[in-house]
Amino acid sequence: MPDQTLSMEEDRPLGPALRNGWKCRCPSCGAGPMLRGYLTVRDSCPVCAEELHHHRADDGPAYLTILIVGHLMAPLLLWAFVKYRPDPLVLGTIFCIGTVALSLFLLPRLKGAIVALQWSKRMHGFGKRA
User: Fold this and answer.
1) Residue 115 CA: distances (Å) to CA of 4, 14, 107, 125, 127
2) Where are the membrane-spanning stretches (predicted)?
3) Residue among 20, 110, 119, 118 at smallest CA distance from 63
4) Sign of the CA dihedral 106, 112, 118, 120?
5) Is 68 exposed, middle or buried (0-12, 13-18, 19+ CB in 10 A)?
6) How far apart are CA 30 and CA 13, in angstroms?
7) Which backbone phi and psi does 33 adopt, to 5 degrees?
8) Residue 130 above 80 pLDDT?
């Protein structure tokens, strides 16, 4: 009978990893910051030394940000225009500011969540043993 303890790897639950990633924290320990600056992922966690340089979160966070912001702001824009009939310049200014603010809020959080998803599913080298 083969030794199953060598072949089994520790569990990496998806839910806690995604919550930590959304908070821009290390998906492994949840304590260390994942990002250095606004969008740069650290090579490793300063708290638990988990390697994070394996990530491949290139365009995914930007696509998801555009998808979410577009699906939220377009119906809201239509509703505000039909209900209140504001001046177009006022409407455009308010929605431009709202769109930029929501995009800047979501982008690092979605990047953290995508890196955490890759870590949890052992994608792109996250499952290799040192």
Assistant:
1) 29, 11, 12, 12, 13
2) 62-82, 88-107
3) 110
4) negative
5) middle
6) 13
7) -70, 135
8) no
